[in-house]
Amino acid sequence: MKHKKLWLFLLYNLMIYPALGLFEINTSWQGAALGIYFCGIHFYWGIILHEFGHLIFGLLSGYRFGSIRVDSFLLYHIDGQWKTGQLEVPGTGGQCLLYPPIKKNHPYLLYHLGGIILNFIIGAIFLFVAKQIGGRGSFFLLIGALVHFAFVIINGIPFKNIPNDGNNIRLLKKSPDYQKMVDDGLKIQEEYFRGKRLKEMDDSYFLDLQNKFDRINTMGMVSSIERFFDQGKNEQVIIYGEKLLDEGQLYPILDLAIRQMMAISLFILKNDQEAEKITRNHQKSIFKNHLIPLTDLYGIAYQKFILKDQKRAQEGWEKLQVKFKNHPYPGEKEMAEEIMNKYKERE
Questions:
Q1: Are 38 and 140 in contact (CB under 8 A)?
Q2: Which of 43, 45, 59, 249 has its CA 20 to 30 A from that of 300?
Q3: Are 23 and 142 within 8 A, CB to CB?
Q4: At residue 185, what are phi and psi to the nearest 5 degrees?
């Protein structure tokens, strides 16, 4: 979400003043301030419409509804029940996850393009109507068109460090195994909502890292390392996490997740020096891009074993308990409790 805000801000500054001139709108600071206000409104509606685009075109492609998230609000459907929860995913403003069709080689392109398509359609409608109205009355629609076209650019172009639709489509075309990895990731989400933990899920959802270290399917490799983490296989987390970090091809948020899993594993193995070393230059980014419960567990360990502040560590655990009340993955609470017991065994 932070990346998208930055790009929207830059695009706004590049396009807004020429656009205001085209529609003969006052370019004073009042006009610019109003434009920023309208931009904020359209930004959040743009997220909602983008995710609904994935939903519409995914359903048309045979997918089943899984969940839709706008900011941290999550609506999901599992086993015939509608539920809500709170889930923050750093770097994203929203997400629509659908369960894949049972048949193999199913169509996938429209599902991944759906958000871009709907943003483009809405942007084109806004621009057309704004041009027909003209003058000051078109200002709100014009800003909306610019924002929706910005969403098309940000989500459609495969930027290097942004996990967006463009990158997904690029990888789907590049690797024949990537489609299976995407589908397996969606199936994992479905099992998560059922309360299952990674260690309880089907082996076929995960890569066998001992026999296949796939440099393209980094998301699949991260999921497999997360499974080692849930299984309490701390040595494997460290070995394969280090190998994946050395590749240097991870999105920043995945890099931080791997470092935290490795650090927690090292803390459990009483190797505090290495745990501190692997996250030393990433502390600010780790706490800025908070991952529940990973960052909480890392912070608790850091307070306990590096800073020796037992009170702050306990406060961190109590705060995590509050977060779990609206967390949609019950299995992660159970995992967190197991890790906390391992911390206590060290004392």
A1: yes
A2: 249
A3: yes
A4: -65, -40
